[in-house]
Amino acid sequence: MKAITCTHLTKSYGNKKAVNDLAVSIEENKITGVIGRNGAGKTTFLQLVAGFIKQSEGKIHVLGEPPFNSLKASANTIFINDTMNLPTSLTIYEILKMGNEFYPNWDMELAERLFDYFSLDRSQRHDRLSKGMKSTFNMIVGLASRCPLTIFDEPTTGMDASVRSDFYRALLKDYLAHPRTILLSSHHLNEIEELIEDVLLIKDGTNHLHVSVSDLKEYGIGVQGESTNLEAWLKGKDVFHKRELPMNKAYAVVKKEQLDPNYKQAGLEVAAVSATDMSMYLTGTSEGGIDDVFK
Amino acid sequence: MIINPDGTKPIYVQISEWIETEILNESFVQDEKVYSQYQLAEMMNINPATAAKGLTKLVEEEILYKKRGLGMFVASDAKDIILNKRKSNTLTKLVDDVVAEANHLDVSETELISMIQTSMSKLRGEKE
Amino acid sequence: MMMNIAILQLLVFIVLIGVIMFFIKRQKKMGLMTIKGRSHNWIFSIYLLALIVCTVIYFMIPSSDMTYSEPKSIEQSMEEEQELHDRLFSGDIAEASENLRNEFYFEFTEDVLIVKPTYQDNYYSGNILFERVEDFEDEVQVYLYSGNSYIDGFDFTDRIDPPSFVLEENELQVIERSSEISFAKLAQEFTLTQFSDRHSGNPFHTESSSYHGAYFVYIQVPMDVDVTSAYSDIELTEVK
Amino acid sequence: MMSLSEIGFWATVKRQFFFKVSSYKNAFSTLVVLQVLAILLSMGGTSSMGSGSTNVFVSVSYYSSSAVIVFSMIWCFITAILITTRAYRNDDFAFVTNRLTQNMANILFLLTASVIAAITANLSGYAVRVAAYALHGVEFVASPSLFNTPGEWLMSVSASFLYIFLLGSLGYILGTLTHLNRLFMFIIPAVFFGGMFTGAANDGFITQTVLFFNDETSFVLFMIKVIVTSSLLFILASWITNKTEVRL
User: Fold this and answer.
1) D26 touches chain C (CB under 8 A)
2) pLDDT per position as a tens digit, D66-104
3) Model confidence band, residue C35 (pLDDT cutoffs 50, 70, 90)
4) Is residue C55 part of a domain?
5) A75 to each of A62, A135, A261, D9, D21, how far by Cα in Å?
6) Could you tell me the residue range of the domain that residue C18 belongs to?
7) How many structural domains compose chain C?
8) Binding-site residues on chain A for chain B (CB distance < 8 A)
9) Does the residue C68 lie in any domain?
10) Residue ranges in chain C assigned as alpha helix (H)
11) Cβ separation of C31 and A127 shorter than 8 Å?
């Protein structure tokens, strides 16, 4: 069964299409990383999935039904975001108890343990928490709710490195014990690369690539050599990235399947490309990089 | 073992290589059950699907065998397979390097072959 | 006067709305426009307790401290006064003793009695009656009657200082004294008056009705005494 | 594998309602502040009348909790506007809801708030009177029928409740309209209170609307008018909000 399926999914604000003709189908009980640059449409896509907003065009099904205004989708989905609203008149501990009331799978014991582990103050109010503490608290809500569809949108904003790794570890352990569909958005993949199974790369509001992380790692290959030789060799190939190097050399990233054996004759060297770099090249705006600015 | 996510080697390859090393170290002996994908995920802090892929790779190479519902076990000739694989991998790499170096130094193919033959007869002579 | 009240009310509400809007603007995510901070459950509890205590106290106020009034219509008051008027004009003062407010006795040896009421705004609102009594000899008897005064059915006639009389030579002066009366009335909420016959159509204005009883000066003089007024426009009525 | 949970409509409304009661509980502190303010204003006598007949000057101070009821109406109005603002609407979506359950829970909350406000406002009448009794060394007059019967007290509470709830539903629809266009935020209160108290629009829509309720001398008809009007306003508000999105 698919947890999320969408076709031609479009969400426009005025003339701008935040999500544009996106088609994707995400399998149940997988952790999927939603990766994209700022403004690529990640949050809009996740809000559509959470049923917070209604699509302008296309179709979306979450856990079997359109999520907008669906009580079933709401009960089985939780959306965690650093700007998420929580009542400020309740203490954060009261909010946990409220979550316990609302979410059928809520694990209060887990919530309390995490609460104590991260030494949160029970009588504190959500709006008074520091950015990092707020993210930590939101993360606890997201984990404890044990929703069949759990969405974390940039969950680690403001967290320090140790809390961050604690969070990913907690997420993994809880996922192992209670497998569920998890969407985890981030603009850098390297942090979550080990954790996720699939990657959904979003660029310009649409599904740019949806593959497993290991496939992403073997998706492209870096080629390096004399500029002129490289140029000649690159003809007719899909180039994801290219940059000039000192001494008239250049580096380019192409699709691995397009690596023909004659590269050695052209005096070129090859090297694998990390998934993080690959995702960066794929979601980048143009072939050129920051170096082009300084030409 | 520490997973290196920035490395160019996919994580599942790192996992399978680690298990191979454990078998060579005899941490796992013949017909012993190895870690499950969940144990690996927990230990290495990785997605269980990635761990499963690493295990599957070893099953494909017949280093491990699968018992339905019970888990993965070390094959009887696992050690040999690993050793052979590593040998051939290492040797191939060395040969590649030699060829590349010979190319740089303008050493012709026949010259290189004769160098290898000399080296081999020297080795034979030492043994005798 | 009414205009000023309307403007005042408007001002109060503009200020109130302003204050509320200020709170909304300032604390866009506060615990519902309140004093910031922790929950204020105790504020509400204390308030409720205070209200209940006040309710108990209210019912413990001795009933003697309160005057209860039946609402009385103006027509009813006017009818009562007309009755008094008719009695006095027919000389039936024994029947009017209920409305007697003051009486004076003077020795009088003159031939003409000049009644000099106190003018207010060039106008005297009372009635002056006189009666020639057969067995009167060198004497004048002055009775002051008045109709009852009501506000919202509450009879405050007793609280008014009635005018007194002074005889100087042959001039009978009416000395009016001013009275200031203030009292509190427990009104009903507009949510109740709306569905009763006292509905006024304005939730901010409690309907009130007041009636001021008129004065009747009743003078008894000997048969041979003439009674005149100090002012030409004041009418004297002889009761026969 | 985690099985999907089915949640009933009314179960969700119930949870949302209890959530609102506990997270909006501070609104009741505001109610206390406003009612105390109104009580203090009422202690001077809500209306005083000077009347002179020649040399007699009479002044009467009327003591009632009418002002407290009016303040409670304003409170409910403002509270209803507040709970329609984005900040509060979005809070609900942190937990389980859809737009219909959200509106239902809001209506239930406003109903509860109106009942509480009506009861305290009517109780405060005694506070006003006790204060008048204690503070003013003046003649004290009471109508014989003043709140002597529980039936009358109940009717006053019910009528207060209906008035307060009516204002709540008005605030709710106006708050919802401001979702559509920000300009409503300033236009509506200005027109409403301006029109109500200056008397400028004596035959205008606002006066007619006020009279529609305030001139109704039959309690049953009044009740029907309020219930029908509030229901229509809430249905309209629910219809408008059924398409609103949660913006972060």
Assistant:
1) yes
2) 889 999 998 998 889 888 887 788 888 888 888 899 999
3) very low
4) yes
5) 12, 22, 54, 11, 20
6) 2-60
7) 2
8) 30-31, 168-169, 172-173, 176, 190, 193-197, 212-214, 217-218, 271-276
9) no
10) 2-26, 41-60, 74-89, 190-193
11) no
ipTM: 0.77
Return phi, psi of residue A201, to 5°: -90, 125
Same domain, C50 and C159: no
Mutation site for B-interface testing, chosen from A212, A215, A256, A279 by largest number of B Cβ within 10 Å: A212
Considering the domain architecture, whether residues C88 and C113 belong to the same structural domain is answered as: yes
Mutual angle of helices A131-144 and A161-177, in 10-degree steps: 0
**Higher-scoring residue by pLDDT: C202, C15:** C15
Residue D153 belongs to what domain range? 9-47+57-180+216-242
pTM listed for this prediction: 0.81
**Partner residues linked to C4 by β-bridges:** none
> What pLDDT, on a 0 to 100 scale, did the predictor assign at position A98?
92
C203 vs D66: CB contact, 8 Å cut-off? Answer: yes
Query: Contact D158/D223 with Cβ under 8 angstroms?
Result: yes
Is D192 a domain residue?
Answer: no
Evaluate if residue B41 carries a pLDDT over 50: yes
> Hey, of D28, D76, D106, D122, which one would you mutate to test binding to chain C, going by the most C CBs within 10 A of its CB?
D28
Tokens 């529609």 -> residue: D212
In CATH, what number does B11-76 get?
1.10.10.10
Please report residues of C whose CB lies closer than 8 A to that of A122.
none
Rounded distance between C-alpha atoms, residue D25 and residue D20, angstroms: 8
Min Cα distance A178 → chain C (Å) is 35
Point out the residue among B3, B10, B44 whose CB comes nearest to the CB of A217.
B10
Domain boundaries, chain B: 11-76, 79-127
- Tally of structural domains, chain D: 1
Looking at the fold, whether C31 and C116 belong to one and the same domain comes out as no
Find the mean pLDDT for residues C55-63. Answer: 81
The answer to whether residue D19 sits within a structural domain is: yes
What is the reported pLDDT for C34?
44
Residue C67 lies in a domain: no
Closest residue, chain C, to D127 (C-alpha): C54
Among chain A residues, CA nearest to C40: A89
pLDDT, tens only, B69-94? 888 899 888 888 988 888 888 788 88
Question: Looking at the structure, do residues C194 and C103 belong to the same domain, yes or no?
Answer: yes
- Poorest-pLDDT segment among B72-76, C49-53, C91-95, D192-196: D192-196
- Mutation pick from B47, B96, B99 vs chain A, by most beta carbons of A within 10 Å, is B47
- Are D13 and D108 in contact by the 8 Å Cβ rule? The answer is yes
- As beta bridge partners, residue A212 has A198
In a domain, C69, yes or no: no
* pLDDT for the residue A171: 94
- Between chains, do D211 and C201 touch, taking CB under 8 Å as contact? yes
| C29–A88 C-beta distance less than 8 A | yes
| Cβ atoms < 10 Å from Cβ of C112 | 11
